[in-house]
Amino acid sequence: IVADINQEMPKIVTAGEIAGRKQPLSWIAQNSGAEGAVNGGFFNGVHIIGSLVTRGFPVSGPWKGRSAIGWNNDGTLHFGDGWFRAVLRSGEQTLEINRFNMAPASNEAALYSPHIWYFATGIPDDATEGKVTSGKLREIKGAHLSNHFVPRDGYLVIARGFSANKLRHFAKGETVNIELLWQEENFKKCTEVLQAGPMLLLDGKRALTPEGFSESVIRGRHPRSIVGTDGKSLWWIVVDGRDSWHSRGCTLEEAVSLASDLGLRNALNLDGGGSSSMWWQGSIVNSPSGNAERPLPYAVVF
Question: With contact defined as beta carbons under 8 Å apart, do 67 and 211 qualify?
Fold first, then answer.
């Protein structure tokens, strides 16, 4: 799928925004009014791995040292390190968010959003819970007094230890904002960000480094999904694999060559294997390994 970066850009849609924690790509596409769709970054079970921001809201936290892509509808496009910090702010009060859509450890704070599920799970009884709707902090109470339902027009903040003490200093009824502090400033302009990796090309040069991935992921031939740009268009590419009669897949070195041969200057590897899939105008147009769609926590839709 090739999209003009000066036209309407794709958006990230989670399965939880529609129904369920994971759904097949075709289901997400059909239920979000899409013309096309492709899989995004990595996940483990129902947990997204790495930074994920959709329409300016952080859904998942960063994985240190891994690359990301970000964009918005005014043509802003950036490839780089996807690390960020998140801070909840209301007036002079601030609270660092340590986790996203998973329970906080001691002295941490977590943010639960409706992009993943309609209620928070695994909340310790010693936590303090704040509910935000329409940008305002509506209530603060002990987590043991809550049913942990996540508001569709807001989010929950769950804090423990000294983070809970800081949350209790926030004033109810006041406006609160989530501030994202990116390691690379260019991501500040992006409303959609997904972290995956490794980076394949950057500014026209080979950029492949392990980024913490195993040798089998890097050197093995697997189905691959790739996103890249030639400066005018955004390219979303799926390479089938694990089928000796159809396609064996490619190594990441071969993915670098493929992206370069297509004239891309920047390119990022996305989740591959059984997740690699592309949907266009009503149908899956590649051949996912295993001969079936793998349920995904989110998709990039056009």
Answer: yes
Q: What is the CA radius of gyration of the chain?
A: 20
Task: Residue 2: count other Cβ atoms within 10 Å of its Cβ.
Answer: 12
**For residues 104-114, average pLDDT:** 97
201 in Cβ contact with 228 (< 8 Å): yes
Q: Which residue has the tokens 């960020």?
A: 84
Q: What is the pTM of this model?
A: 0.96
* 187-211: average pLDDT: 98
Which candidate, 125, 144, 128, 131, places its Cα nearest to that of 172? 131
Q: Measuring CA to CA, which residue among 199, 254, 269 is closest to residue 39? A: 269
Distance CA 116, CA 59 (A): 8
Query: CB atoms < 10 A from the CB of 81, how many?
Result: 20
Per-residue pLDDT at 290 exceeds 90 = no
- Distance in angstroms (rounded) separating the CA atoms of residues 174 and 215: 50
